[in-house]
Design a protein that fits this description.
303 residues, 11 helices, D-Maltodextrin-Binding Protein, domain 2, Arc Repressor Mutant, subunit A, DNA-binding, two-stranded antiparallel ribbon, LysR family hydrogen peroxide-inducible transcriptional activator, 7-stranded mixed sheet, alpha/beta, transcription regulation
Length: 303
Amino acid sequence: MSTYHPTLKQLQYLVALSDHGHFGRAAEACFVSQSTLSAGIRELETLIGVTLVERTRRVVRFTRLGEAVSDKARRVLREVDELTDMVRASGKPLSGELRMGVIPTIAPFLLPRVLPRLRRDWPELKLFLREEPSAAACESLQRGAVDCVLLALPYACGDVETARLFDDPLFVAFARSDDPAGTGPVTPDAIDEGQFLMLEDGHCLKDHALAACNRPELRAGAAMLGTSLHTLVQMVDNGLGSTVLPEMAVAAGILEGTDVIARPLDAGRARREIALVWRKASPRERDFRLLVESLREPDERTG
């Protein structure tokens, strides 16, 4: 009796449909037409003799078995990726494709500084970047959509290996006319909870700022939420309140062209730790360790 084995392409189509919940968007993610993706999934259902997806005009709904099959397919595809990684790791270090997730409070400030260095040190590396908030980036790592993530710690990212790059101190930013400290650091009790501006949920910097200030009322009293650090700076510049920024953003010039100033936050945990994380037991660990050395600041490379 012959047994039908699904093709990897059919499993990719099924997982993409599960991820996106829409045939058109799943097809775009797979770089095929919607009819090709739909036909591939129908062929899979026909050959295994079960319905995996219930189709209506407005809704794509997976059957209970379809959900189980798509979860298993996701694990199979991840194993295939790791097999490919294992072969690649046996060749030249840091060569070929590598998919790295980066959170938005790091990407625009660190990458312009380190990418030229990476291109110089590892010319055969094809680095694909995916910018996502911390929660989404860690989810992408766990399901194999990215190979590693440039993250700010502490943050619970699952069962991962971690390599520290450097510390990133936190600063308080406020309009020059509201300067509470003159020239020195700002203590948490100088922050007005009624005018404190924070990032939306999903950004780990929000939790880092609240933990450093150790004032629970700041979360409840936050006046507004911003979608990015640049948005928060514009809000501060327009007199809407104060916020917390990482040093790397200040050093990269995020305050240029504004009447906003930033002073160090004087608190026990007023920093975040920038790190590279990857799945445990990844066959590309050697590549990630080399990547860490290239991403580290020069004065951190012996640490």
